[in-house]
Amino acid sequence: MAEQVTFYEAVGGEETFRRLVHRFYEGVAGDPVLRPLYPEEDLGPAEDRLRLFLVQYWGGPNTYSQERGHPRLRMRHAPFVIGAVERDAWLARMREAMDDLDLPEQLDAMLWNYFTMAAQSMVNAPS
């Protein structure tokens, strides 16, 4: 019987998600639309939270839930005004980060489809 490989394993595990999220937050640090949405002076804690969430979501260790409980993404993002401009800026920074990974086309598409759906679901303000 063939062993099933998770998306997490297929893309390279922890190291790939570490690179992705680090590159994403490098973009956030200089983005005039996104940076104000991160109240912490140091983006490190936000970087850790996103990395742990993505690792767990895609089949890696469940450290995120052990440390933070249920993700409740919409609730956690509710205090921030997120409209189309913020969604698009977030997606632009994530696309840049994903491009640096140079994933195989099918895996890239799966990840990008997830990010576009997730970003749209965080919108809580009219355009």
TrEMBL record:
SUPFAM superfamilies linked to this entry: Globin-like (SSF46458)
Gene3D superfamilies, per database record: Globins (1.10.490.10)
GO molecular function annotation: heme binding; metal ion binding; oxygen binding; oxygen carrier activity
Keywords: Heme, Iron, Metal-binding, Transport
A family per Pfam: Bac_globin
UniProt feature coiled coil, ranges: none
Family affiliation: Belongs to the truncated hemoglobin family. Group II subfamily.
PANTHER family xref list: TWO-ON-TWO HEMOGLOBIN-3
This protein's name: Group 2 truncated hemoglobin GlbO
Species assigned in the record: Actinomadura rubteroloni
